[in-house]
Amino acid sequence: MPWVPLQGAELPARFLGANACASSGCHGGGGPHQNQFLVWSVKDFHSRRPFATLGSARSHQIGETLQIAEPARDPRCTTCHAPLTEVPDARRGPGLQATEGISCESCHGAAEGWLRTHTRSDLTRADRTAAGLRDLKNLYVRANTCAACHQVVSRELLQAGHPELQFELDGQSVAEPAHWETRTSAPPAQVWFVGQAVALREMSWQLQSEPGKDAKLAARWGALVWLLQKLDGLQPKLPTLAKIPLQPTPEALRLAQVTADALARMGAELAWNDGLTREALARLAHSASDFSGLAEPGEAAARRAERLVLALDRLLGAHNSTAEAPLNLLFRQAQSIPDFAPAPFAATLQQLAEALARQP
Ligand code: HEC
Ligand code: HEC
Ligand code: HEC
Questions:
Q1: 172 lines ligand 1 (CB under 6 A)
Q2: Long-range CB pairs of 271-274, under 8 A, 24+ apart, other chains included
Q3: How many CB atoms within 10 Å of residue 339?
Q4: What's the burial of 300, exposed, middle or buried (CB within 10 Å: 0-12/13-18/19+)?
Q5: For 17-66, how does the pLDDT look when each residue is reduced to its tens digit (9 = 90+)?
Q6: Which of 24, 223, 265, 275 supports an S-S bond with 304, CB 3.0-4.6 Å?
Q7: In angstroms, what is the span from residue 174 Cα to ligand 1's centroid?
Q8: Which residue among 107, 149, 173 is best mutated to probe the pocket of ligand 3, counting the most ligand atoms within 8 A of its Cβ?
Q9: Distance CA 66, CA 180 (A)
Q10: How far from each other are the two terminal CA atoms of the chain, in whole angstroms?
Q11: Which tens digits make up the pLDDT trace of 103-133?
């Protein structure tokens, strides 16, 4: 260090576009270690679909409500669906096109500062990060990268008909066609855990930043606090959420935002093992009494169930378990928020806990 003298012109780095990564000797080849461009451009929904979506009938409907004539040109939409549109002129390389959608640099960082050096074997991971290449192997960094577009969508957009977003790092990472070596990926349960903590931080921020009551978001927030409180003390070093009330008072939101961020940072650094996954699963599976005790159905309980079922699904997958029948029933029972009935859900949850206890 430093391997290239800083001359000012390099900073801030320019975005160069996916083609800059796509030569056949780099990431545009056909082999398993060089096919990233191919996987992204052919299979990954980030490459063309997000931009194309802005031209759809549904987008125009959303746009009409918000008085947006052309969603593909409005920053309220392009910020997530075509982020390269927002890059200022001074930072645009010659080949850059907004139609690339969510491109290599949207996740990995503007390439100018690291393009020529990132393959040098004498550089460390820290050197590359310092040059602007995001360390996506770090789960905290990765979760923040994805959550930037996958959790917070403004109430205004939701009311205009935009789909509700629910960030879940593990499921969404698996759903993205991998252009990386999965053999060295972090344990799925840990990926899930860090993602949930980041989702809570983002929701806490949103509830603080948007004035007025939002009952739906408040219920979703309370459900996630409830879920993560079940995992308090999973590992003694992690901060706990025990003091956070399930009602989003200003104080509760401030505390949740800070604690969730610390939880995500520290969760990403843990040496996760199967024991932690088993313990997390057992605690969540033994939460039937939190539902059977409820006299009234209501949105709060339904949102808990919704979060819980997705969590059990990820953790069971991670644990290679076969409690399939009760899990499928839980999915059906949690499917409709207005029709949610706590008692039968609690009974199935009890069955699931018993099935798990019978397993070796
Ligand atoms: C710059 C914004 C942005 C970033 C960063 C981003 N995404 Fe996306 N992602 C989108 C948009 C927008 C869509 C929706 C595409 C469409 O249907 O138009 C999407 C779609 C997806 C889908 C498909 C959703 C579905 O149900 O069909 C998955 C899975 C996904 N992203 C995972 C990830 C993961 C994992 C990361 C982080 C490594 C990530 N995304 C980072 C914006 C982003
Ligand atoms: C905070 C980031 C963000 C913003 C801002 C945003 N979107 Fe999205 N949008 C997403 C993501 C992520 C998805 C994918 C949801 C999923 O499938 O899980 C999505 C999905 C959609 C879909 C559904 C796609 C389908 O499957 O048919 C439409 C339509 C859409 N967005 C239009 C818009 C329009 C129009 C705007 C601007 C008014 C906008 N979006 C702003 C992130 C965003
Ligand atoms: C939606 C976000 C996203 C986009 C877009 C994206 N990547 Fe990635 N990429 C990731 C993540 C996350 C990882 C690390 C995953 C892991 O290690 O588990 C990764 C890993 C990689 C790796 C390391 C491979 C390995 O096995 O360690 C390379 C090389 C790479 N990406 C190149 C590219 C190129 C080239 C493009 C564009 C053609 C691209 N990426 C687009 C998110 C993205």
A1: yes
A2: 272/186, 272/187, 272/189, 272/190, 272/193, 273/187, 274/319
A3: 9
A4: buried
A5: 998 888 878 888 877 788 899 999 999 999 989 999 999 999 999 999 99
A6: 223
A7: 12
A8: 107
A9: 39
A10: 52
A11: 999 999 998 888 888 888 888 888 888 888 9
Counting ligands in written order, which one lies closest to the CA of residue 169?
Answer: 1
With a pLDDT cut of 90, the percent of the chain lying above it is 69
The answer, yes or no, to whether the previous bond of 12 is cis (omega within 30 of 0) is yes
Amino acid letter, 31 = G
pLDDT of 356 higher than 60? yes
* Torsion angle of C-alpha atoms 102, 108, 113, 114, degrees rounded to 10: -130
| Residue 267 token pair | 């969760």
Cα of 164 from ligand 1 centre, angstroms: 13
Closest CA to 105 of 170, 42, 19: 19
- Render the burial of 119-130: b for 16+ CB within 10 Å, e for the rest: eeeebeeebbee
Mean pLDDT score, 247-273: 96
Q: How remote is the CA of residue 88 from the centroid of ligand 3, in Å? A: 24
Cα–Cα distance, 316 to 297 (Å, whole number): 27
pLDDT digit string, tens, across residues 321-339: 668 889 999 999 999 999 9
CA atoms within 13 A on the CB side of 43: 10
Is residue 172 in contact with ligand 3, taking CB distance under 6 Å?
Answer: no
101 and 47 Cβ atoms separated by less than 8 Å: yes
